[in-house]
Model the fold of this input.
Amino acid sequence: MKFLVFIFVGFHILSLGSGKSIYKNGITQRTFQDIKEEITSYEDVAKAIINLAVYGKSQNRSYERLELLVDTVGPRLSGSKNLEKAIQIMYQNLKQDGLENVHLEPVKVPHWERGEESAVMLAPRIHKMAILGLGSSIGTPPEGITAEVLVVTSFDELQRRAPEARGKIVVYNQPYVSYGMTVQYRVRGAAEAAKVGAVASLIRSVTSLSIYRWVIVFI
Ligand SMILES: *[C@@H]1O[C@H](CO)[C@@H](O)[C@H](O)[C@H]1NC(C)=O
Done:
């Protein structure tokens, strides 16, 4: 379905500029018309792929492949053994499907291993929290980190209260606005907390509605 949407969007944009040349680094490339014609020439192939996947003998194959990966491999972080397993499964599948030029190539990828994460609120009462460490988090010392928290609802508030953040665990209690906006707290939260001298950061999961969950990042 994504593929269909992509094609329509492409045509819409292309029709606005058809006939005009595209410039890149000052060098004239192909015209929009050229590109439009090239994309149009793939119409039959695209239709054949969509028909095969949606109605034909590959019907449900995406779901079945996903099911296979999720059930037999599970999470596939880059650089993990699970990812290797997933790659081997897909490699074998694509070969069995008779696709051309199926091969593997060595690549360098980031590698981060999840340790064991836990968090306990110590005051005003003892409360164990269900948390998940964000990928690439730096581990705590073996004894963990104990610190007071500073709860903020935005980066602006963190800036205003920067002097209070030193040595504390910054807790982002950000309202959910949209995925694009709210995910900034997951992307930049730890780095922004580090800049003001915090020792760790904790964010709410980036969603409009969820069962209780927090994510912690040690910095
Ligand atoms: C795909 O899944 C649907 C729903 O479970 C089922 O009715 C259909 O027969 C399946 N198609 C194939 C080719 O297995």
Q: What stands out?
A: Residues 59-60 surround 2-acetamido-2-deoxy-beta-D-glucopyranose (CB under 6 Å). The CA atoms of residues 129 and 208 lie 20 Å apart. Residues 1-17 have pLDDT under 50 and may be disordered. The radius of gyration is 24 Å.
